[in-house]
Amino acid sequence: KTRLVILISGRGSNMRSIIEAIDAQQIDATVSAVISNRPDAAGLDYAKAQSIATAVVDHKTFSDRDSFDKALAERIDDYKPDFVILAGFMRILTSGFVEHYRNKLINIHPSLLPKFKGLNTHQRAIDAGEKEHGASVHFVTAELDDGPVIMQAKVNILADDSAESLAARVLDQEHQLYPAAIQKLVNSKQD
Ligand code: GAR
């Protein structure tokens, strides 16, 4: 069975949508562990309640990115994942880390890449006068939010949208998109 390790930093609603999709047999995979860089990430509680292994690798206890990424990779590799799923994981990863998980490291980003890499994507899409916005699931490469796109979901931007209202509609789409993209990867691995 395809093994997933999910990395989170906070709320973990995308992580939850993946676990729910597995429980509903919409993804043929198992979540081997959920790992957070923040000890207080709310998503850890949900994973624990589902009897999924959890771990914390607190970036604040490391002096530099290299040592954090090394410790994180060691923790991840304990679980021998086929795919490492970034789900609201808000740390930039070193090229060494990214290279170690070539073709295995997946992220969800709240924009229609290649538009709006980085942070504050919803406000920036509104400010740019975009008519459409959305989310992208992509392979992670060393360049931030730049790897090959696997799947995207679109929403229309409405005249009275705030960043918050738009973010909420995009997040609804993310919760459909991420499980679908992961199942696509699982299928392609079995071909
Ligand atoms: C999601 O909207 C995700 O696309 C975004 O953070 C949110 C996490 O929510 N990710 C990024 O901005 C990555 N740079 P969640 O913790 O509820 O899944």
Key features?
binds glycinamide ribonucleotide, 191 residues
- Low-confidence parts, pLDDT < 50 over ≥5 residues? none
The ordered string of helix (H) and strand (E) elements is EHEHEHEHEHEEH
Strand composition percent: 15-25%
How much is the average pLDDT? 97
| SS elements, strand count | 7
Helix count from the secondary structure assignment: 6
Order of adjacent strands in the largest pleated sheet: 3-2-1-4-5-6-7
Protein name: Phosphoribosylglycinamide formyltransferase
Binding site for N(1)-(5-phospho-beta-D-ribosyl)glycinamide: 12-14
Organism: Methylophaga marina
Function: Catalyzes the transfer of a formyl group from 10-formyltetrahydrofolate to 5-phospho-ribosyl-glycinamide (GAR), producing 5-phospho-ribosyl-N-formylglycinamide (FGAR) and tetrahydrofolate.
Verbal overview:
By secondary structure, the chain is α/β, with parallel strands linked by helices. The chain is built from six helices and seven strands; from the N terminus they run βαβαβαβαβαββα. It has a seven-stranded mixed β-sheet with strand order 3-2-1-4-5-6-7, with helices on one face. It starts with a strand and ends with a helix. 36% of the residues are buried. The mean pLDDT is 97. Bound molecules: glycinamide ribonucleotide. The site of glycinamide ribonucleotide has 14 residues, from helix 1, strand 5 and helix 6.
In terms of topology, how is this protein built?
Elements lengths: L1 E7 L4 H11 L5 E8 L5 H8 L4 E3 L8 H13 L5 E4 L8 H6 L4 E5 L11 H7 L4 E8 L9 E8 L6 H28 L1
Parallel strand pairs: 1-2, 1-4, 2-3, 4-5
Antiparallel strand pairs: 5-6, 6-7
Helix pairs in contact: 1-6
The site of glycinamide ribonucleotide (GAR) has 14 residues, from helix 1, strand 5 and helix 6.
Family: Belongs to the GART family.
Keywords: Purine biosynthesis, Transferase
Protein name: Phosphoribosylglycinamide formyltransferase
